[in-house]
Design goal:
This protein has 8 helices and 8 strands; from the N terminus they run ααβββααβααβαββαβ. By secondary structure, the protein is an alpha/beta fold. It has one domain (40-221): Rossmann fold, CATH 3.40.50. The model is unreliable at 1-9 (pLDDT under 50).
Length: 224
Amino acid sequence: MLSDFISLIFPAKCSGCQSLLIQSEKAICTSCFIEINEYAIKNYDPKFSFGRKKIDGFFSLYFLIKNSILQKIIHNIKFKNDRLSAHVLGVELGKRLKELNYNDKIDCIVPVPISKKKLRSRTFNQSEEIAKGLKTVVNVPIVTNWLKRKNGIKSQTLSNRFQRSINVQEEYYLNKKKTLKNKRLLILDDVVTTGATLQSCLEALDSNKNKSIYVVALAATKKD
């Protein structure tokens, strides 16, 4: 009753187009889903690398197109506390990864962390919220206390490729109390642009041997 009353006073709107959602829709309307699925990526080179760091596989659910509905939704997730859209898109990512048998290849999901300072301002880590949606489909644990991020870095939004690479060098580090030996990891980021953030994460994980590392993202910048 209370939820119905709240919905009547504050009807749910689509994160992409702001149209009113019908009862069967959650966070993103059917029309916007049809549009963002036009950016869906069928597969990715399993030998993709981030700088000199080789990984066992890389997959992104969508291409990130400038000024698209998807870009608007991701902006709302990161800067307007839109956790529900993050969860919904995480479920979509999980469905695709299950089709690709990722659930048989990994032991845990490691969301790319944000700094404590940024966590206080945003109140949540968008990659972790995406991971929660993914976990409902690919039933492996989410681990948030292995990989850490320092507080010093500024927003990457306006940085170019070279500046991003410099900014994130040694920005991530491994919790010394944890061991990743013999673990099969799925590193999850929300958006991959230059790959500098993930390269820094892989640098931090490099001291631990005898494991496989897969990287996935909700969206990736399309390469020419």
